[in-house]
From TrEMBL:
Organism: Daldinia eschscholtzii
InterPro entries given in the database record: hSac2, Inositol_phosphatase, SAC_dom
Bias type Basic and acidic residues, positions: 158-168, 229-250
Composition bias type Polar residues, residue spans: 362-373
Record GO terms (molecular function): phosphatidylinositol-4-phosphate phosphatase activity
Protein name: SacI domain protein
Keyword Signal: yes
Amino acid sequence: MPNLARKLLICAAVDGLIVQPLATKGQRNPAPVKIKYGDATVSSLPRDQTPDTTKPNSSFEAFGVVGLFTVSRLSYLITITGRQQVAQVRGFPVYVVTDVALTPCTSRSEAESAIANTATKLRQASADKFVEDSDSESEVDARSVTGGDDAEDPGALSDRETSEDKDTSGAGGEKSSIAEDVIKHRGSYGRFAQRWFSRKGWMMDQKRNLGMTSVETDQAGDQVDDESDKAKKGDPDKELSDTVVKEKVDPPPTPSAGESLIPKLLRFSHIWLGTSRSFFFSYDFDLTRSLASQPPTSATENLPLHESADPTFFWNRNLLKPFYGSGEESLLLPVMQGFVGQRRFVVDRHPPQVDSQEDSMEMNNMTPPSESNIEFPPPERAPSDLRPSEKEFVITIISRRSTRRAGLRYLRRGIDDNGYTANFVETEQILSTPAWSPPSKIYSFVQVRGSIPLFFTQSPYSLKPIPVLQHSPEANFRAFKKHFELMGQTYGSIQLVNLVEKHGVEAIIGREYEKAVKKLNEQETGNTLPLAFEWFDFHSACRGMKFENVSLLLDILGKKIEETGSTVERNGQIERKQNGVLRTNCMDCLDRTNVCQSSFGKFMLDLQLKEEGFDMSVQADQENSWFNTLWADNGDAISKQYASTAAMKGDYTRTRKRDYRGMVNDLGLSLTRFYNGMVNDYFSQAAIDFFLGNVSSMVFEEFEATMMSKDPGVSMSKMREQAIETSQKIAIEDDKEDFIGGWTLLSPHVSDTLKALPFEEVVLLLTDTALYLCRFDWKLDKVSSFERVDLAHVVSIKVGTYITSAISPAEADESRNVGLVVTYEPGKFDIKRTNTRSLSSMSGQSDESSGKVNVLKDPAAAPAAVSGILNQGILNAITGKPQTQAPRKIALKALHSTTAVSDTKDVKKLTESEQINLIATEIERLVFYNQPALASSEERQSIIERGDIISLAEAKKSTGILEQLGHSIKKLVWA
């Protein structure tokens, strides 16, 4: 293959799909790339001189590679096809991603077809952009006709392309692929929207008013086009909907589990990575590091960006793994999620007195508060227009969302085992001159926000959910301590600003936060700085829409902010470093947090400008609309990425005013967040975890079964080990019993049944004389109840297929759904105890037909409770019950050995069948030991019976219509 070093085969299944980097300026500069199929020679000429030897529509140029992902047997390449410059830092442009292309890599026909369609759209978008730019008077009209700005969204579909799409979709009238539909039709809605808005909808009135066409012409054209389309390819709307839902690329006889969610994943990918405008990149500047954390230039000048980028904020690091070690470093373009915004402003050492706000804005070249979406580049003042006492500055805000505990509002709360918190965002405010000249100072002020660093959850099914603390105090404090150790290493001293309510539902978590801070400060030695904690009840202080009362918080923290200072660079050298950081939080770390952080940022900006010789308090424009707008845009961006809506209280952040209209807007945002939290976020969370590499593609198989996904930040293997250890201490009272082993399994939530949904995860303990089934409260790390079965009473063990639901492929897989049923005859040493977490012990009548039931004290007092238990013989004598009871069952089902959350990759796991066989064999061995009659028989018969516990056929019969309908509706809504 010619010029092998300039080519990269990205998937073994596609022999010839090439990602070809175009000519680059330097080693640190990832360049635009060409995506093509084939083995064409690559010229070494500069980009604008390279002859195009490829066939029309056989390749397209992208602005960079986001990465490659594989689900089931399908792989997709993600490339940037739309970008917009939003800032320039040190002379280097910074871009926001406005569109991406997803190219399937599973078969040649799919790849060629997708590339051709993407090339067609990009060429059409470029032509449309040229027409719009060449006729500025009709710019608005042109956009109305084409349905939008295709320069930023080349995935938009135009009527001119519908006929071409048929020709490029493959020979023989093949249907287009899912990826094509996503790229081309915006996830199955593009053609419907295009047909409605361009012909039949409100656009008709616009065309009539503008004199562009008549109603009759449009109607006639409509009829001709419809008849022509139907004659050529039937009903295009029906064909499109059928294609999006049913299309598979070379499908096997039976689609693999989770594969039905791929259309949903592709739509999400296109929206999340492309049109959401949430991802930013620069070819030359490292966006992932603040000014204070930038390594020396000498250490990074020869390193590609992906090696110098901070992994905490490098969002496509996992997606780029297939390209690592390829020798083509220019392909690896780091992308950051968050916000980048920039504004110019002018200040005056001796501002003239003006009588109106209009005069002041005109003098300072500022934008009124209502104009919130100013495109880059910002307005520029020529040096000749500046008065001698004036100076122009640029303020830049860069917010970096952490990848560590990434996700959406109610599905990622609090902290994880490694000390990372949800919605952790580092926001850097940079003040510089427009030219970023070395002799001038560059100021950098960094703040962070993040969820309260404790284990807690909140239900999405409430507008005002109550925080629920999880896990033991010891587990919480361990994670809490880890978090601030990491923060101290990164930022130095830490000032905590807690904005939750001191009374009401939020106070629960706020008080625990305060207790943890005090405990950590008491334990810390002189080697570390204590945490400074300020609890400011935002809702109480700003009641009645008086958000200006945030100044009370500034009065408290002003001196601390001044002492913390900011990082200052001049002539390429750091003259002063910020020596600490403010960590602000509310419950979501969105609305209240953004209001306060903007106030802290303005306070620091005033200090920095004072150092430059400018007093902001005497400036003609006291509205500072350029600053408020920038911070409001920042708040909206972070809020959309975490809660799927713009930030509340945004009207105050923009205008420093609050009225009833802002309240009405906030109510609408609350309802939208409520809906997203209940419905949309579950799948989105699974997809985010997958893209970041926190889970495997199996997450979609699990999601299809439960419509939920697990939290990869919490190590289930560690939790299960701790649960077995805790259960052992609580349940096994006799020190003479030898502990053999412990396992976590699934069991019906009602005892002595085989199918009592939902199944819950339990702890099974085995000693030399007994079997213990412990029901565990995983949120509180406590044993809620347990029952003891003497091994001498075990009659039989059944091992086999155990299917409890046939709704999803994962649940109906006979090889993975196996279990065992232990049948025993209750005797005098078989007991059941329940933990009420009370200070007294009381005996209660059992709803069970066997053994003895006691209410267990608090686990700390378990031995005292155990010593007061009456034996079965005495209980039977009192109640008059016979010694023998009806046989009872303990049903256990194996957990899936491989899951999407792979926290024990290096440990070889037993399969489900191997684990069940091991447990059954151990129980049988000890049963024989405890039943000498069985052990001494000449021909000892195994008590293990092989056969279906619940077969697939039985599960299908027992799955009711309502259950199937409920799952179908839930899948329709959630997925």
